[in-house]
Amino acid sequence: MNALFEDAGKFLAGRVLSEAESSMQVELDSGKRVKVKAAHVLLKFDKPAPAVLIAEGQRLAEEIDLDLAWEFAPEGEFGFADLARDYFDAGAGTSHQAAALFRLFGAPHYFRRMGRGQFRKAPEEIVKAALLAIEKKAQLAAQIEGWAAELVAGRCPQPVREQLYKILFKPDKNAPEYKAVVDAAKKAQRAPLDLLVAAGAIDSPYQFHWRRFLFEQFPKGAGFPASLVAPEIRDELPLAEGVRAFSIDDSATTEIDDALSVQGLGSGTIVFGVHIAAPALAIQPDSAIDKVARDRFSTVYMPGWKLTMLPDEVVQSYTLQEGRDCPAVSLYVTMDEATLELKSTETKLERVPIVANLRHDRLDAVVTEAALSGEAPADFDFAPELAFGWRLARHLKAQREVVRGKPENFNRPDYNFRLQDADGQSPSAPPDGRETVVISERRRGAPLDTIVAEAMILANNTWGGWLAELGVPGIYRSQASMAPGVKVRMSTKALPHAGMGVAHYTWATSPLRRYVDLVNQWQIIACARHGRTAALAAHFKPKDTALFAIISGFDAAYSAYNGFQNGIERYWTLRWLQQNGVTELDCAAMKDGLVRADTLPLVLRAVGADGLPRGARVRVRLGEPDLLTLEIGGSVIARLDDPTRADDDAVIEDEAEEGAEAAATGLALAIDVADADTPAATDGAAPAA
Prior knowledge:
With 689 residues, the chain is of the alpha+beta class. Helices cover 37% and strands 21% of the residues. The protein has 21 helices and 24 strands. The strands form 7 sheets. A 5-stranded antiparallel beta sheet has the order 4-3-2-1-5, with helices on one face. The protein has a 5-stranded mixed beta sheet with strand order 9-15-14-11-10, sandwiched between helices. Strands 20-21-22-24-23 form a 5-stranded mixed beta barrel. Strand 2 (10-19) and strand 3 form a beta hairpin.
């Protein structure tokens, strides 16, 4: 005797070896013997053989019309044998009964399982809905198969193109577009990105990086609401007497946050002024403009373009434009002219006459150390003020370096990227990646940079201490030590910043382009208005959870923006290599087989660089750059220096910075990340797109 039984949703058949009241021993065709509960046995039969029954039952099951079977089935509960007799004939044999069982079991949308071998017809509306769903599923499967076939053939279906960045970076694995790409990649035996490139899904490498950034950081679009209007400053601000303020920025800078002034030259007592644009006097927390600024957190810079934190019409209402008396938060530092000993500080809310917007890209060549020190003619505006600013900046920097324990070394230059369209003009719209790029060096620590940077550090340090003294919470940047791996952190506590060499450090001098600075300016204004009772009047109170949320959001956004800026600068660097036909570069060895180009902001891996001492001078032959992955390789073809001599300058550089650079070059979109708290990258020297 043989038995057909169910085991974990599968139907098996075999020869019965022994039978008890509640179970039986069954030998399968494979020779395996299993113990089967009597309740699991659905059919007992002598003929045909078990394997033949299974095969014949499956064949006959495919011939059963489910719609017809559903019509024939009784209204109440019934067994599979009953359906077999109704559907085939009254004498339906074992094979027909097995066929009915298999067909009923495999059609849950037509028949509900009520028990072992027992079923009930599903209601008609349920059957119709299920059939409709099955049809849609079949159509979707056919659509996925069709899209996959197109991708394999080198064509990109429009739905896949529209979902490209979601598929690649934030995929919904149940989405048909995603499944089509996965299926096509398997069939074509290619990586998904390679497959999509071959299918023309990516318009250009530049658009790929740009649209990916917008997709990840600006999913609702990069535009501003049309209803935003810059609110007026209602305060009756006094006009700063005797002040002739000037700003120092790049020619393309529109968000002019800071300006300087010098009073009392030759009198023995100098009043040095740092004047910061004051949008916080007009923009109120939780207002529409504040929500936009908080949503963005910062201006995004890139070669040839920028996405500002605030709409341009709002920026222009508060920027320190020359020829205007601009509302400002001013810090006045009174000091001895001869010794530069600080005597007092004072913060004022006022209107400041902005006499000039100086542009360092036009002046760096003439405002030199020699001219500022009196060793060469100083034929430029504000020469006495700039000479004093240079003297003060060197003094402040020297004081900080004593605290740091070692000097700040700027052994490498900064780089300016300038894009030109076909007519040789700067693009007036977002670049498309086909522009000509001009890369020029700019020495870090140039006099104008240093003057502005040290003035901003002075203001941020002074205001940070003032907030702490009055018990008003602010957002600070701190670094416990300069040991490798110790990072700069943001918090609400006024802690030392070892890398800067100051006791406390805020960001409060760029409120038009950094949200943290706007927040701190609200707090500083409260201090200026209320003095010792400022903690009661300030918008943000001690231990305010909103400050911690701002810190978290700002850190994430600022890191993403910097990563994009570094990545897109790497793109333009690789484009420069292509446009100029450069195939070899002189480089300095780093760690782990990496080398740094001497005259470009480029770090790459070079065969033959492993084992070379840090700073070793080499000539590298370049491979073909990949503008999509931002990768380029090379190989060392010559050693340019004396292998027996070490490069002391290279060894002096911060180990922590080296580690950051080496790690960054391993990422497609992040290279050569400068410490955002070094003077060359602080408020006065931020990139101007």
